[in-house]
Amino acid sequence: MKRISFFIIIILALFSFAQAQSGWTQKKNEGYFKLNQSAIRAGQFFNPEGTLIDITTTSVYSTVLYGEYGVNDRLTALVNAQLFVRGTINRLESTVDGAIVPGDEFNGLGEIQLGLKYGLIKSGPIVLSASGQVKLPSGENVGGNTELLQTGDGAWGAIGMIHASHSFYPKPIYANLSVGYQWRGTAELAYSSGLTTVNYDDAFVWGGELGWTPNKSWVFALKWTQVQPFGANSSEGVTGSSSIFGNRLTYFAIIPEANYLTSKNWGFSASVGGVLSARNILAAPSFNLGVFYQLKQS
């Protein structure tokens, strides 16, 4: 299989680690809320060995609500919810006998994460915080007539992270760094042929961000995220061969993002990301557009 020469763009809808990588917490009764729409149309997949293979064209569309709200000046409430996920598989026509395999679609509620972030060090050259989020088993792990489509992994999960941030003020530059542990539970996949139990593998997670704020309207950021399951690489227990919710998801991704503030409170964002390596996940162009609101007290 010929490898794409520059970047393989990948959707990062399973966990939005990049959203909560800042060491800063929200002030009391202030917040940040973002509604994001992502879309992917994939004709290739990273298999368990990290090799690109061709698949029937598969699309995933996800509408995500992300929010931060300051309970007090140290404690921030977090929500990261896939309000709607739509997956489709194109129909396939055989080049040998012309037989047609019908396409498929599946819609539903996706992954929902709820959590808290606590400010450990609020002042000084480096601010430090810790966060914990619980993922609800809200998504469906078997869907459509083909039983290949998913809106989630159907398992409980959690992630704990430490975040550090530094502002280079008066230069318009900032930096964030995060490291953490992702726990994934056990789920049953109810196929028409019977039940299959999957014990999802835990993973090491880290990421960072470099940001530039040239003026009051624009914020540009370069983000990166790595997810590395524990244990030796293996195809055992891998699920979701046409999805983004399977077991042993592995990737190192770079995500450039642009944010534009139309007023003090409202703004728009756009991002796209490229992976340097990946396993067990869709590989295709992905686009993300969002609108956000910053709740300010003054």
In whole angstroms, how far apart are the ends? 57 Å
Strand-residue proportion:
over 45%
Task: Provide the low-confidence segments as ranges.
Answer: 1-18
Pattern of helices and strands: EEEEEEEEEEEEEEEEEEEE
The level 1 CATH classification is Mainly Beta
The CATH superfamily name is monomeric porin ompg
Q: Give the second-level CATH assignment, the architecture.
A: Beta Barrel
> What is the helical fraction, as a range of percent?
under 10%
Please count the helical segments.
0
In CATH, the topology is named Porin
Enumerate the strands of the largest sheet in spatial order, edge to edge or round the barrel: 2-3-4-8-9-10-11-14-15-16-17-20
Shape: globular
- Number of domains in the coordinates? 1
Mean pLDDT, rounded to whole units?
Answer: 87
Structural class: mainly beta
**Mind describing the biggest β-sheet?**
12 strands, antiparallel, barrel
* SS elements, strand count: 20
Radius of gyration: 20 Å
Task: Give a verbal description of the structure.
The protein is mainly beta. It has a single domain (8-295), classed as monomeric porin ompg (Porin, Beta Barrel), CATH 2.40.160.40. The protein contains no helices and 20 strands. The protein has strands at residues 8-9, 31-46, 52-70, 75-89, 92-93, 100-101, 104-108, 112-121, 127-136, 157-167, 173-184, 186-191, 194-199, 203-212, 218-229, 250-261, 266-271, 274-279, 281-283, 286-295. The strands form 3 sheets. The chain has a 12-stranded antiparallel β-barrel with strand order 2-3-4-8-9-10-11-14-15-16-17-20. It has a two-stranded antiparallel sheet with strand order 5-6. Strand 3 (52-70) and strand 4 (75-89) form a beta hairpin.
